[in-house]
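User: Second chain of the day. Same drill as before.
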Amino acid sequence: MPTDDRHCCDDAPNADRTGATTESDAGGGSGAPVDRAALDVDLPRDLRRSLEGFLGVESVTTLREWAREIRRGVGGSITRSDLCHADAETDHWGELDGERYYFACFYDAVVLAALADGPVDVRTRSPEGTVVRARAVGTDELRARPERAVFSLGVAADATAGTDGPTRAETYAAVCPYVQAFPTRAAYERWAASVDAATVGLPLDGATAFAEALTR
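Assistant: Same format as last time:
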């Protein structure tokens, strides 16, 4: 997710590192066509309220509207310079044309695919320690392993911002710790019940739809 520059994520909470080394042995995902209709489904009420309070807007009811507000915050569509690259190795990376890019937030690797000309191999680790992988091709296809993997989007319950709206760094601190990938919906639900944030869980196979909304 976007930040003020490539190093401003240093002040945000660190990614969870449980030390677990469980690798999923599930097969590749179905690679079904991306369901862009999910962008217009109403978000959970608690997430809508948290987003509206944090962003200082009257209404954010769908993922499409949330993406619009993120683009407004960065002054236009997200570009590669908006991604939060990490100088050191992290649990979240994407490989494009043989080059590995480490990120503070796993979703930036999905956004990278939306911005790239070639496929991106995504690898992340869930809060419980399970490795989740995906292969994203532009904004049209994402094959997740395990195929039932989901990802979360959310915002901290106590997130606050100035009267002019949140800065990119404030957005990172409030949102990105709650953008995670999980091997199953049950794993997401256990995590969601343990964090002080409003979240929504979505199929990882459809993750590129939101990325497309951020970059187009």
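The first strand starts at residue 92 and ends at 96.

User: Great, on to the next one.
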